[in-house]
TrEMBL record:
The chain crosses the membrane at residues 9-28, 40-66, 78-100, 120-140, 152-170, 201-217, 229-251, 283-309, 321-341, 347-370, 377-396, 416-435. This is Branched-chain amino acid transport system carrier protein. One of its GO terms (cellular component) is plasma membrane. GO terms for biological process: isoleucine transport; L-leucine transport. It comes from the Bacteria. InterPro entries: Brnchd-chn_aa_trnsp_Livcs. The lineage of its organism: Bacteria, Bacillati, Bacillota, Negativicutes, Selenomonadales. One of its GO terms (molecular function) is L-leucine transmembrane transporter activity. Component of the transport system for branched-chain amino acids. The gene is brnQ. Keywords: Amino-acid transport, Cell membrane, Membrane, Transmembrane, Transmembrane helix, Transport. It is found in: Cell membrane. It is a multi-pass membrane protein. Belongs to the branched chain amino acid transporter family. Pfam families: Branch_AA_trans (PF05525).
Length: 448
């Protein structure tokens, strides 16, 4: 087996950075910084856990299973769970939330600053019509052009952000104001939940195989070594993402006194660019982000169509799925960026804990082994609390139940009531499997 050089590990780290560095995610750190104000550092620590750390652990978990994560999920939980999770995943990072967001983000940052208020609705309709028309065309005509454009745009976008960051530190927008809302009393947990919005943990279960295969192509083949390289390369990605997200949060934290409290991070970032560089800066960033979002949109629609075409055994054609996906994304994008974000929050609050628990447990699978009840009990219990948290985020509350759970379940009041019950359920599952689950013992004998 070939040992990877430091240069090759650096290359993998940069590749992972380019995968997770999406233009659509640029809007969340500035919004966090503006709302968190003086508590931005603590809030950003929570954001980095779910927005950067957990996605990298997701890729590591896939590497530990040799890239065969679906089969692993089928074996450890229930046959339907892997399919259900992947369906939800491809819809979420596809036409339901992430793809409409690419159109909305590129409009908010690149086009909105040049339009009068009375022309915003029509302007967004026309822009997204062309944006998703281009998405459809590119997804229907697979070629290397979109990959080449994407590879050029990532450095271009990063270079522009470096210039923006330097400018923001040399001549700050204003003073850092006090925290607002939930960031006053629980900045870390609020930042932790804000990281859900990146959807990168969900995406890591889809793109993890790409990273694993890239490492294997360089001569490292055993799962343990591949996992180790993922972790080492991950530190490079974490360092770069911390710099990018941290700098964006700083811009947001210093913006409130100048820009006021805006609706979303897209408007905030556009306002900052306008102040620092004027209309010329807005035009440049509009061009870069529009193309960057277009490459992302095309890739997500193509991936979604490929998966559902495979799931249907070719009964639903790739072309029909691309048509449906782009049409739905076009309609959804026109409800506006703020509304897309608001609608996605309850759903992500409900689904993210399930993925977190499964990824963390799979990292310890060498210790858990044949004790399948650890996974099943932890997932089932997490599902109950995650659904309650999701309903609460949607404004659907049960006062008596909420009062009881807040009093007796740790962290329930900050939206993380699933954490301790999941740990307890995993421990109970361990004991049950070890002493009473005869079927698990038979599985152990079979596997040995």
């Amino acid at each position: 087996m070939k040992r990877m050089s430091k240069g090759e590990i650096l290359t993998v780290g940069l590749m992972m950075f380019s995968i997770f560095f999406g233009a659509g995610n640029l809007i969340f750190p500035p919004a966090l910084g503006q709302a968190a104000g003086s508590n931005s550092i603590i809030a950003m620590m929570g954001f980095l856990v779910t927005g950067v750390g957990l996605p990298l652990l997701g890729i590591t978990a896939i590497a530990m299973q040799g890239g065969k994560y679906v089969e692993f999920m089928n074996r450890k939980t229930y046959p339907w769970l892997a399919t259900a999770l992947l369906v939800i995943l491809y819809l979420t990072i596809g036409p339901v939330f992430a793809v409409p967001r690419t159109g909305a983000v590129s409009f908010e940052i690149g086009i909105r600053p040049f339009l009068a208020a009375e022309n915003l609705t029509l302007g967004q309709f026309i822009y997204t019509l062309f944006f998703f028309g281009a998405t459809y065309y590119l997804a229907m005509t697979p070629n290397k052009l979109i990959d080449r454009v994407g590879k050029m745009l990532t450095p271009a976008l990063l270079a522009f952000l470096v210039i923006l960051f330097v400018k923001s530190f040399v001549t700050p927008l204003g003073e850092v104001l006090d925290a607002t809302g939930a960031y006053i009393t629980a900045p870390f947990s609020q930042g932790f939940q804000d990281g859900y919005q990146t959807m990168d943990l969900l995406a890591s279960l889809s793109i993890g195989t790409i990273v694993v295969n890239a490492i294997r192509m360089r001569g490292t083949t055993d799962n343990k070594s591949v996992s180790k390289i993922c972790i080492i390369s991950g530190f490079i990605t974490v360092a770069l993402m911390t710099l990018v997200y941290g700098s964006l949060a700083y811009i947001g934290a210093t913006s409130a006194g100048v820009l006021g409290h805006v609706e979303n991070g897209g408007q905030l970032l556009a306002g900052a660019v306008s102040i620092f560089f004027g209309p010329a800066g807005n035009l440049l960033v509009a061009f870069i982000i529009a193309l960057a979002c277009l490459t992302t949109s095309c890739g997500m629609i193509s991936g979604m169509a490929w998966y559902f075409n495979k799931l249907s055994n070719n009964r639903v054609s790739y072309a029909r799925l691309v048509q449906a996906g782009t049409l739905f994304s076009f309609v959804a994008s026109n409800i506006g960026l703020t509304q897309i974000i608001a609608l996605s929050v309850p759903f992500l609050v409900a689904i993210y804990p399930l993925v977190i628990v499964f990824v963390v447990l799979s990292l310890f699978d060498g210790f858990i082994g044949w004790r399948y009840s650890v996974y099943r009990l932890a997932i089932n219990v997490t599902l109950v609390f995650a659904v309650l948290d999701g309903l609460a985020a949607a404004g659907i509350k049960f006062p008596a139940l909420t009062e009881f759970l807040t009093a007796y379940v740790p962290f329930y009041d900050i939206g993380m009531g699933w954490f301790v019950p999941a740990v307890v359920a995993a421990a109970v599952g361990w004991v049950y499997s070890s002493f009473w689950d005869a079927r698990d013992s038979e599985v152990l004998t079979t596997e040995q």
